[in-house]
Specification:
The structure holds two protein chains of two kinds. Chain A is of the alpha/beta class. Chain A is built from 13 helices and eight strands. Chain A has one domain: P-loop containing nucleotide triphosphate hydrolases (Rossmann fold), CATH 3.40.50.300. Chain A has an eight-stranded mixed β-sheet, with helices on both faces. Classes of the chains: A alpha/beta, B alpha+beta.
């Protein structure tokens, strides 16, 4: 870690930044945590802000896949923490988003191999160099979670409209404590099911969690297709879901304010009489 | 509208079921995660009852149970005898009992909404 501390001023002749460290977390797995991190990060980068995405899911590395950068990863976070390579060696660049970097997780190691204090120092060092440090938190509330939240002063909770996901999100919010700003992204909403009373609504979910709503992402095929291709949907100007991610990025940077729009399905009568969406 | 029709046929929308299940499971979670609050509740409960009856404090048991449609507080408080005249409520400044004196505040304020329709106010 001493190298990191010395390295930061050397590489940035300009005064140090003090970027924002935001952990993206959900407790439960399979709610789209990594996809949300990747797309929010890509959208932030596309605004021109400098952003680094840190995969804290040591042992189950996925963020590189979702971003389509898996072939470019040479070193990982533990290489840096253990002093094998410098931070610059480990940061993966992305041609599509020149201001974005990825710090991949180690695939062949375990979460217990990561020292929480060292990880916190790493995040702190990254904050000196980037406007935004986005940390992809693994599922669960064990060591990996503790590591991921250690250096973050803000959190984004990713929750799907399901009982188990809301329960776990509630638990995670409790564990994050009072010292962090916490916001909510409701992921994989299906407005048509909500209209038919077959899915919890955003209001139902946030009636429980009571967090500032950062955005709502519809469950759309675009996301699956883009993940298949390794092209973040946030970078697809034609995709409505991509637009939702871009708006999330704008809310984070502060260029967009007000309550996020919640996608709604039109009822039979609205369809019949051409009511607006 | 749809919900109305479904209710008409006697089957609630599954989202309503999900919402109710969520409310109950979180209430249980919050109770089990806040033993200090439960302990404080038990203490206050016994204090009030003791004004009217002599209570077998050593054998008191206060638990919470998640049932089909509600979370219930079950209090088993053996009564030894009735007091002939109810003791007056304690003065505002409570006698010094440091561990309990500072009633632990609920872990998070927004939990309050969950206590809505329970048998006993739990948070």
């Amino acid at each position: 870690m001493h190298e990191l501390m010395q390295e930061a001023p050397a590489t940035s002749a300009v005064p140090r930044k003090r970027g924002r460290a935001i952990v993206v977390t959900s407790g439960k797995g399979e709610v789209g945590n990594t996809t949300t991190t990747a797309n929010t990060g890509a959208a932030l980068g596309a605004t021109g802000a400098s952003v680094v995405l840190v995969d804290a899911d040591v042992g189950l590395r996925n963020l590189d896949i979702v971003l389509g950068l898996e072939a470019r990863v040479r070193h990982h976070v533990l290489d840096v923490l253990e002093g094998h390579v410098t931070l610059d060696d480990a940061l993966v660049t992305d041609k599509r988003v020149p201001t974005m970097r990825l710090l991949a997780a180690a695939q062949t190691r375990e979460k217990d191999d990561v020292d929480t204090a060292a990880f916190r120092d790493l995040i702190s060092a990254l904050r000196d160099r980037f406007d935004y440090v986005l940390i992809d938190c693994p599922a669960g509330i064990e060591k990996g979670f503790a590591n991921a939240i250690a250096g973050a002063d803000e959190a984004i909770i990713v929750c799907t409209p399901e009982v188990a996901a809301v329960r776990d999100a509630d638990r995670v919010v409790g564990l994050l404590g009072d010292g962090r700003s916490v916001q909510l992204i409701v992921n994989r909403l299906r407005p048509e099911l909500v209209r038919r009373g077959k899915m919890l609504s955003v209001e139902d979910v946030n009636g429980i969690l009571r967090l500032p709503l950062l955005g709502v992402i519809e469950d759309a095929p675009d996301v699956i297709v883009s993940t298949n291709r390794g092209e973040p949907v946030a970078l697809d100007p034609a995709s409505p879901v991509g637009e939702s991610y871009r708006q999330i990025a704008q809310r984070i940077t502060g260029t967009l304010t007000g309550v996020p729009e919640i996608p709604r399905a039109r009822s039979f009568f609205e369809k019949l009489f051409g009511g607006r969406k | 509208m749809f919900e109305f029709i479904q209710r008409f046929f006697g089957k609630p929308a599954s989202s309503a079921t999900a919402k109710e299940r969520l409310r109950l499971v979180l209430l249980s979670d919050h109770l089990s995660l806040a033993p200090d609050v439960v302990e404080s509740l038990k203490h206050d409960l016994l204090e009030v009852i003791s004004r009217y009856c002599e209570v077998d404090v050593a054998n008191c048991d206060v638990t919470f149970e998640q049932r089909e449609k509600q979370v219930a507080m079950l209090a088993n408080i053996p009564i030894l005898s009735m007091r002939s005249r109810p003791a007056p409520p304690p003065p505002p400044a409570r006698e010094p009992d440091p561990p309990q004196a500072a009633a632990p505040r609920p872990r998070r304020k927004r939990r309050k909404n969950l206590a809505g329709s329970t048998t006993a106010p739990a948070t």
